[in-house]
């Protein structure tokens, strides 16, 4: 998956609505688990982005289109993090690398899609718990927020088989899957977290995670902007480019309002 992703992953190829003129610069940032590469887009307050891939596919360029769009439309400097993934590391390496990069660049917001959305929620929790970072926003796109539980059976992109693989490879210690940074939905307390944008797809197996997390955040007094794409599975932005443009603009406006 690592070796072939650049040729096989085509997610977002029809969503390049802005920022095509940006030339990302490459840098390396130190973390407690070694240096990681980071692609930096645009200028402005730092926004850390964490790509998806089920903690199994290391390919941050899959979200190049999104990083360009957000940098151009929201007025932020997007840091797309090349954190390490399974099978070469296990939990909590990816989460800790993401948090360390966020601290290093002084992030004002953090976001991600799928597993990256779950990691963004974990980074927000780490920031609150340590007091090391003052985030103004967390953007959680179709997030994986509960690795201790099974996904609903019945098809869809995120299957019970994929969940099993992710657990075996990246979360092999069953006792740790319910920790807050592995499964933010199971965190005992969500008070004091930054405002959140929660994006889900109507038919996505992970939608219950997003729905439940949005509800728990609101109960804890956290402001939530929730948006569900009708008729969509996990790749919620690729099935209807017209709807995707609306969703992306919604997020960009909220990032600009909260951060930039």
Please give a structural write-up.
This protein has helices at residues 5-8, 64-74, 93-105, 115-130, 160-169, 207-219, 241-258, and strands at residues 25-29, 36-41, 46-50, 77-81, 109-113, 137-141, 196-201, 224-229. It is an alpha/beta fold and 260 residues long. The protein has one domain: Rossmann fold. The chain has an 8-stranded mixed β-sheet, with helices on both faces. Strand 3, helix 2 (64-74) and strand 4 (77-81) form a beta-alpha-beta unit. The longest helix has 18 residues, at 241-258. The relative contact order is 0.15. The mean pLDDT is 94.
Which descriptors apply to this entry?
alpha/beta, Rossmann fold, eight-stranded mixed β-sheet
